[in-house]
Write a structure and sequence with these properties.
Blueprint: H1 6-23, E1 44-49, H2 54-69, E2 73-78, H3 82-91, E3 96-100, H4 107-113, E4 117-134, E5 155-157, H5 164-177, E6 183-185, H6 189-201, E7 208-212, H7 216-219, E8 222-224, E9 236-243, H8 246-249, H9 251-259, H10 264-278, H11 283-293, H12 297-300
Parallel strand pairs: 1-2, 5-6
Antiparallel strand pairs: 3-9, 4-7, 4-8, 4-9
Helix pairs in contact: 1-6, 1-10, 2-10, 2-11, 10-11
């Protein structure tokens, strides 16, 4: 496949996020609980994810490929916010959320639902929440934002109102750094990225909420603001989370997910291929292309 230019890859990612967000506009999607066991050579596994958070989207489609190749039926459940996803997981309507942020970003959901959730282990180390500005903007720290309210129009451009990132900024970062003169603007990840694209193309100042790993960090000319007070939270892991009892009923799947691990390079190439090179309607093709380039990955899941 021919590589996209930076601008076309950004556009593809924005279109993918926008279309997917529209498709899952309801609070919840129909789900089905797991039936059968992998001891019988198959069964149904329901994967839940937030399409705006493309780590979850990419890994969900990766697991769809792997599990269907092993003889399982996979049902994909897109939800528009973290709250119904964690509720569905705890209630058994969703079997696995393949890319949870349990330690910081989704800590409040784990506190509420954690007793009914199995943590199958971390697959990525060092995930972080950030506030970011364009590379050409001459401030380097969140501490500098209070003195630059007018410069940024008094806005911090955020994502979904129910996101853990939104809660961290609203409840911790804003009071910690005295950012009460700013309005945290929330809507969707796609809307935030559209504003970021518009601002950077016009060489205008903007401050947005972001996270790592996320393809936008390399597709846009942005830099993380330093966080000397640690208000955005410590680095955390991305984990495979399952409903209670899943590992007992589906031990082979649970073991594969426990063995799942990606490096920065592997994850970056997976997300870029799935979201940007292939995009909306072709995610499964993107996963297959990535697997073709990483032939040892499936074997690594066997431990």
């Amino acid at each position: 496949m021919t590589k996209f230019t930076r601008s076309s890859r950004v556009a593809a990612g924005l279109i993918a996020l926008g279309l997917t967000a529209t498709a899952c506009g309801g609070d919840e999607a129909d789900t089905a609980a797991t039936t059968g066991t992998d001891a019988a050579g198959g069964g149904t596994v329901t994967l839940g994810f937030l399409p705006g958070w493309t780590d979850g989207l990419s890994t969900a489609y990766l697991w769809e490929n792997v599990l269907e190749s092993e003889g399982y039926t996979v049902e994909m459940t897109e939800l528009s916010d973290a709250a119904p996803l964690y509720a569905g997981l705890a209630g058994g309507d969703v079997d696995v959320y393949p890319s949870g942020w349990p330690q910081v970003t989704h800590a409040s959901y784990m506190e509420e639902y954690g007793e009914d959730i199995e943590d199958l282990g971390a697959w990525y180390e060092g995930a972080v929440l950030t506030m970011a500005v364009p590379e050409y903007t001459d401030i380097t720290s969140i501490e500098e934002l209070p003195a630059n309210v007018d410069r940024f129009g008094g806005r911090i451009v955020g994502i979904e109102p129910g996101a853990g990132l939104t809660e961290q900024v609203q409840e911790v970062a804003i009071p910690e750094y005295g950012l009460e003169d700013y309005q945290l603007q929330t809507s969707s990840t796609a809307a935030m990225l559209a504003e970021l694209q518009s601002a950077t193309e016009a060489q205008e100042d903007i401050v947005v909420t972001l996270w790592r790993p996320f393809w936008a960090n390399s597709s846009f000319p942005v830099k993380d603001l330093e966080d000397p007070k640690g208000a955005m939270g410590e680095p955390e892991t991305l984990n495979s989370l399952a409903r209670a009892g899943f590992s007992e009923e589906m031990p082979e799947v649970a073991e594969m997910m426990s063995n799942f691990s990606l490096t920065d390079e592997q994850y970056g190439s997976l997300e870029d291929t799935v979201v940007n090179e292939y995009g909306e309607g072709r995610y499964a093709e993107g996963v297959q292309a990535w697997l073709d380039e990483n032939p040892d990955f499936v074997e690594s899941l066997q431990g």
